[in-house]
Amino acid sequence: MRSTDPTTPVISVSGVTRTFGSGDRTVRAVDDVTLEINAGEIVALLGPNGAGKTTLIDMICGFSTPGGGSIRVFGRQPAAVTGSGRIACVPQSGGLNPHLTVQRTLLLIAAAQKVETGRVDEVAERAGITGLMKRRVKNCSGGEQQRIKFAVSLIGDPDLIILDEPTTGMDAGARREFWAAISRDADAGRTIIFATHYLAEAEEHAERIVVMAHGAIISDGSVRDLLGTRARTVTIAAVSPEDTARACTGLDARVDGDRITVAPGHSDELARRLLRIPGARDLIIHQPSLEQVFLELTAEPTAHPTAAGVDTHSTH
């Protein structure tokens, strides 16, 4: 790995747009996106199909150019950095010659990047594909091919790894091994960005989650930040409707039987008031899951960067 200036963002995206088609059929796949990612961050990019995740990743990797705005990776144009080996992009599909063996694939990439051949065995072990080396790529499963592409990405010892749906096609065991390898790279100080539709992976492995919908970033923050923007549900037993109503006075809360939906930041105060009621018991504060928050955010038809209440232009 090369040394990285800690004062310069690894990725700087400013006002980027990208459209496809023309006239009445114009589609704005990425809509005025601004984003900074710093060295050592592990960032998950979430969004429904058509949200613009892959289009944004392609531009950051230098595979396509913005229609408006600017992108810098390590302070340079993305295409120039991709050629230097500092950035490794692992696409969701394609990128491998199906007729070559896995070993030949890795050796050719190593030769192209002027890397010693001994590196091939090292990255094969890290990616968990040592047992596939003699097999032709076309005879490998979809999950195995994803691991091959991950091994390819490691050959140049990159500072930044970008992965688009990296565990698609992998079984549970292969996903565990893959994320163990990613964790080792993160511990070594690499910056990692991954797009995924597995919310559990984002929650477990990302320090920061960026949610996209309709081509725009609608939320950006930690899992805790994201969950903290949504209402909680409080349940309690042996409390009369009158006492419940009094406890909710002055709070942003809605009562439905023994269930109270309360705005973020008010749940602790509501719990204190309820517990002062004689005989009150079995109080539970239910926090929404990441899946619930994600579905609520991406279902909003007028999604806007401020809708989630989380800093969408964070420089974490």
CATH class membership of the domain at 11-86 and 158-226 and 294-299 = Alpha Beta
How many E-type strands?
Answer: 13
Describe the strand arrangement of the main beta sheet, using strand numbers.
Answer: 5-6-7-3-8-9
Could you spell the SSE succession in H and E letters? EEEHEHEHHHEHEHEEHEHEEHEH
For this structure, the CATH topology of the domain at 11-86 and 158-226 and 294-299 is: Rossmann fold
Strand content: 15-25%
**Percent range of helical residues:** 25-40%
CATH superfamily heading of the domain at 11-86 and 158-226 and 294-299? P-loop containing nucleotide triphosphate hydrolases
CATH architecture of the domain at 11-86 and 158-226 and 294-299: 3-Layer(aba) Sandwich
Task: Work out the helix count.
Answer: 11
Rg on CA atoms, Å: 23 Å
User: Structural class given helices, strands, pairing?
Assistant: alpha/beta
Average pLDDT reading: 88
- Poorly predicted ranges: 302-316
Using the alpha-carbon principal axes, give the shape: elongated
Described by strand count, sense and barrel closure, the largest sheet is: 6 strands, mixed
Keywords: Antibiotic resistance, ATP-binding, Nucleotide-binding, Transport
Domain ABC transporter: 11-239
Membrane topology: Peripheral membrane protein
Protein name: ABC transporter ATP-binding protein
